[in-house]
Automatic annotation (TrEMBL):
Residues 1-41 are annotated as: Disordered. It comes from Kitasatospora setae (strain ATCC 33774 / DSM 43861 / JCM 3304 / KCC A-0304 / NBRC 14216 / KM-6054) (Streptomyces setae). Residues 381-439 form the PucR C-terminal helix-turn-helix domain. Residues 1-19 have a biased composition (Low complexity). It comes from the Bacteria. Residues 57-195 form the RsbT co-antagonist protein RsbRD N-terminal domain. This is Putative transcriptional regulator.
Length: 447
């Protein structure tokens, strides 16, 4: 085997001369104690760790070159940080690898703690996790390539030992890198989530949201698509023997992930397993005073497919300062649409204008709903009246829908007229009955 020295690019000029304060390689790298010479695997009769110790000063520079060549994310770090902290971390990694080759003992807690701390700093700096893990793998790979160049066929048992120690080193180091990185990202995401929720609360309460947006690091859009979302149960939530809370959390996690993927900008949401408010930024150049029904329907379909549950949404659009009123309107529209038997999907104010108005407080609303009070003990009469009006006063279609004989429909309509004084086939009474039914159905939807 030959060492791949020739193809290595030269170190960038700004990194070629480390600052004076950069510590020189530790003395144990320059002159190893004599008692170490007989430990660990040997290639060509020479201990592997001694070969690494001799190469260590040059290896640190070569690893840095490979780091910048193979992992572009490190180019974003300041040159002084690369010359200082990152170079020291590379040297420390080489020393740890030498010790593993010498003794077969994996890095201890103190060294792993330093790796976790370094990884956390890279997470805070925005270096991708794969680049941080890849840096340790590149260093170990380069070290292994240098010493394997001296291996001969007779050294096969020692090659196997060296490989085993290499894999063990990479295993514990990769775990430490991931642990430090994830812990830092979780803390950062926690802070980010708190600031986002503060912005959402400010928008829903009304008032000027600019200070909360600045704290969250979010640019306010020209307007928001405001949704009041109702989330149906996932089929597994009703399955016997299944932990409902686990299924609900999984449903929400998939919904949020799909919402992030399908949204330009930062969506804001406060969702439980049953639903909640969602604000989607909208910076389209040609704003519309009402939501785009087709686009909204497509979005809800994708979200429902992702989370495995039916979604019903009231929708409105508003500038950031008017989100509070739009959120109340969207919630009312959704409640009215649900109460009047409209199915899943998007619902706009224009869909429920009469029902929405009749759900507003007032003596006329209460009087209209009271007209149907005599039907309360006879739910089949109320259901027949609703089906008759829905099917455009067609008794046969009504009978088919209810799975009864047309004569049964006629009988029930006569009983309804006798109890309420309103005949569904008379023109003057028809409008009153429609309004009374709307007022009755929206009673549960009143805030």
């Amino acid at each position: 085997m030959t060492a791949p020295n020739a193809e290595l690019p030269s170190l960038p000029a700004e990194l070629a001369s480390p600052p004076a304060e950069l510590p020189s390689p530790p003395t144990e790298l320059a002159s190893p104690p004599a008692e170490l010479a007989s430990d660990g695997p040997r290639f060509g009769g020479r201990p592997v760790h001694l070969r690494l110790l001799a190469l260590a000063p040059a290896l640190a520079g070569e690893v840095m070159v490979r780091l910048l060549d193979r992992l572009p994310a490190y180019h974003a770090l300041p040159p002084e940080q690369l010359r200082g902290e990152i170079t020291r971390q590379v040297e420390r990694g080489i020393r740890a690898f030498v010790e593993v080759m010498r003794t077969g003992v994996l890095p201890g807690e103190a060294e792993l703690a330093r790796i976790r701390e370094s990884s956390a700093r890279r997470a805070d700096e925005g270096v991708p996790l794969e680049s941080v893990v890849g840096a340790y793998h590149l260093g170990a790979q380069l070290c292994a390539a240098r010493v394997l160049a001296e291996a001969a066929p007779a050294d096969l048992p020692d090659v196997a030992t060296a490989q085993d120690r290499l894999l063990g080193y990479l295993r514990v180091v990769s775990c430490a890198v991931a642990a430090g990185y994830v812990q830092e990202r979780q803390a950062a995401l926690g802070d980010e989530q708190v600031s986002r929720q503060a912005l959402l609360s400010r928008l829903l309460e009304g008032g000027d949201p600019r200070a909360a947006a600045d704290r969250a690091g979010i640019r306010l859009p020209a307007r928001y698509l405001v949704l009041s979302l109702a989330i149906g149960p996932h089929p597994d939530e009703t399955r016997p023997g299944v932990n409902r809370s686990v299924v609900a959390r999984r449903k929400l996690r998939r919904l949020r992930a799909e919402l992030e993927r399908r949204t330009d900008g930062v969506p804001l949401a406060a969702l439980t397993a049953d639903g909640g408010p969602v604000l989607l930024p909208d910076d389209s150049p040609h704003p519309s005073p009402v939501p785009d029904r087709a686009a909204l329907a497509a979005l809800l379909e994708r979200l429902a497919r992702a989370c495995g549950a039916e979604l019903t949404a009231g929708a409105a659009t508003a500038a950031p300062a008017e989100v509070a009123d739009a959120a109340r309107l969207a919630a009312d529209v959704r409640r009215v649409a649900t109460a009047t038997g409209r199915g899943p999907g998007p619902h706009l104010l224009t869909d429920v204008l009469v029902e929405y108005q009749l759900s507003r407080p007032g003596p006329a609303r209460d009087a209209l709903a009271a007209l149907l009070a005599p039907l309360a003990p006879r739910p089949e009469l109320l259901a027949t009246l609703r089906a008759f009006l829905t099917h455009d006063l067609d008794r046969r279609r009504t009978a088919t829908h209810l799975q009864v004989h047309p004569n049964t429909v006629d009988y029930r309509l006569r009983r309804t007229a006798a109890l309420t004084g309103l005949d569904a086939v008379r023109g003057p009474d028809l409008l009153t009955l429609r309004a009374a039914l709307a007022a009755h159905d929206t009673a549960p939807a009143r805030p």
